[in-house]
Amino acid sequence: MPADVIIGTDGLTPDQLIAIARNHAKVSISAPAFEAIEKSRAIVDSLAASEIPVYGISTGFGALARKFIDEDKRTQLQKSLIRSHAASSGEIIEIEVVRAMMAVRLATLCRGLSGVQSKTAAAYAALLNAGITPVVREYGSLGCSGDLAPLSACALAIMGEGEVINNHGQIIDAASALKAAAITPVELSSKEGLALINGTDGMLGQLVLAISDISNLLKTLDITTSLSVEALLGTDKVFQKHLHDLRPQVGQGKSAANIAKLLSTSPLVKSHAGKDDGRVQDAYSLRCAPQVAGAARDTVSHAANVAALELQSIIDNPIVLTNGEISSNGNFHGAPIAYVLDFLAIAIADAASMSERRSDRALDEHRSFGLPPFLADDPGVDSGMMIAQYTQAGLVSEMKRLAVPASVDSIPSSAMQEDHVSMGWHAARKLRKSVDALARVIAIELMIASRAVELRAPLLPSPGTAAAIKTLRSKVAGPGSDRWLTPEIENSVELVKSNAILDSVEKEVGALL
Question: What pTM was estimated for this model as a whole?
């Protein structure tokens, strides 16, 4: 069972968030966090009894902030806020995304500046631990004033309303799910509606998940690059440390070191490394691989710094300050997250594009240095890997389209009160599609480069790349006459996404950078 994650007053780490979202780690709230929650709640209760209008406590919301709400209508105010804002539409989003979003919101509540009741925070923890996931649909957030519709769907669930996915994967009504898990629905009180929906939790959760995925995929990309270098009889000289020290970009150095490590003992590379090798320079897609994949790594590092800071931030409006004041602010604006979500989509689209170019080169008899056309068993009768490269090219084209930034757009809302929004949620949604496409592009390069290397027999690959081929062959057959490729592509994708390829190579050569 995954280890428990204790949520305190200091936020979450990326690893903790991933453990909750993907591995269903159990969560608990620390005693200091409960104490901080109760202190801020006491301040809210005091202000709620005042005749002075306070935003989020005794007023309407957004463009209706100037309307004073009588005390006898404030409970209804909270219910109405959540019900009206739970207005998402489209496909149901992934369970791991919803769990990440709930975990980030719970961590914010535990900082003790949101003014919620202790039982409200406890209800979020209870839902996560019971494996109950609110049904959240694709559209409804503009990435400013919080991921409003997605977070409202989560708040609706703890009220015992709306739909959820239970721990058996069934969509049922929230009231039934809470009853089965012995969770008492929460009656929201003053300020709580805003406290549950005013934050960038959805886009931040998706950013953290994407960073984890891309980091591993870029290591796997170094493996498939190494296979392609072997398959195309490329040189490993350009990956040596002294050359990359001349341009000390961190990511570039790591990528080059990985490729150099994998090729250092390659019989295929050594077979043509002497003075009789007439090729002075390899094509850019081989020679410049560390520069492109390395730049993508540096983009990931920048995004990881932003994500780490956001996980330590308090994204709520208004904030219940410890001096007893309620203060409006703009920390809910998603620009910092939106920018890096878009930046990542750009970087991985370019890395994928270079991968596809290596595959195309391996299939072209005029550029592959002796390999059969399309790596076909009987060229003409067989088409080999021709259409696998078409699929790869289609994926890269889609990634280029998804690399168009969402964060440069803004559509004003709430009667022009919210007149500039980040569109960060949309940046996050398209990045998830891009990450999936990157895994597929890498999986197809893995298939093509592995087949090409095997067609170089009796020359052998390095121990590291051989381990990748061996793992691939556990699910995907080797060279031969044409056969149905879709299942093989999907099996290769699963080996890439599950990190089985990466794990097998690291077991052979040690950890990659």
Answer: 0.95
